[in-house]
Write a structure and sequence with these properties.
Length: 201
């Protein structure tokens, strides 16, 4: 089982990234909270990882903080929550916000996440309340990265693609991006603001 990787990020295409470790490239999926905090340029980064093995695929997930991985693993134990939905939850709101909504039983707030309907939201609240105290979640708010994920000219298109990959419908993703997009923004900033706008909506 791969638990941690130390290397340099070669490609960032949310929610996927390519990490080079001693000449070997690892393809990982990561929540936006990890992308926001990745170092710029050619700096080394340490990612905590979780490997998911299924009959049809082996998936590797990466997290900048161990607490995010712990929450991710707790989410996977909830009936009906898979890797894609767990990533969407970690991308759509901070661990503090998620904890607040679960502890307060805010079904409406959780339903703003892609793929989360009323029944799933109620299940998350019921099953996660006791587990959240054991995640050791950090409370720091993660700032957006300063560097662009790709060319700014395509930041809006890349942001829409990332949101679709996280589970939003294409038309909804396009609306979310259009509501916040500015030509001077990089991809990660567009995604962050779009997700914040959805969370407040």
């Amino acid at each position: 089982m791969i638990g941690l990787l130390r290397g340099r990020v070669l490609v960032k295409q949310p929610p996927s990234l390519l990490l080079e470790v001693n000449g070997v490239g690892y393809e990982l999926e990561a929540p936006m909270s990890t992308f926001y905090d990745l170092p710029d340029g050619d700096q080394e980064v340490v990612l905590y990882t979780h490997m998911m093995v299924r009959d049809d695929a082996h998936s590797l997930f990466g997290f900048i903080r161990e607490s995010d991985r712990t929450l991710f693993r707790s989410l996977l134990k909830v009936n009906g929550v898979g890797g894609k939905m767990a990533l969407a939850i970690l991308s759509g709101m901070s661990t503090d916000e998620f904890s607040l909504y679960v502890q307060s039983g805010d079904v409406k707030a959780l339903c703003r996440l892609p793929g989360v309907g009323k029944k799933t939201a109620e299940r998350l609240i019921m099953e996660m309340r006791d587990r959240l105290d054991k995640t050791g979640a950090e409370t720091a708010v993660v700032p957006p990265a300063a560097g662009a994920t790709s060319g700014r000219a395509s930041a809006d298109g890349d942001a829409v693609s990332a949101l679709v990959a996280l589970g939003y419908k294409a038309t909804e993703a396009a609306r979310m991006v259009a509501a916040v997009f500015d030509k001077d923004m990089d991809t990660e900033t567009v995604i962050r603001l779009a997700l914040q706008g959805k969370a407040k909506g």
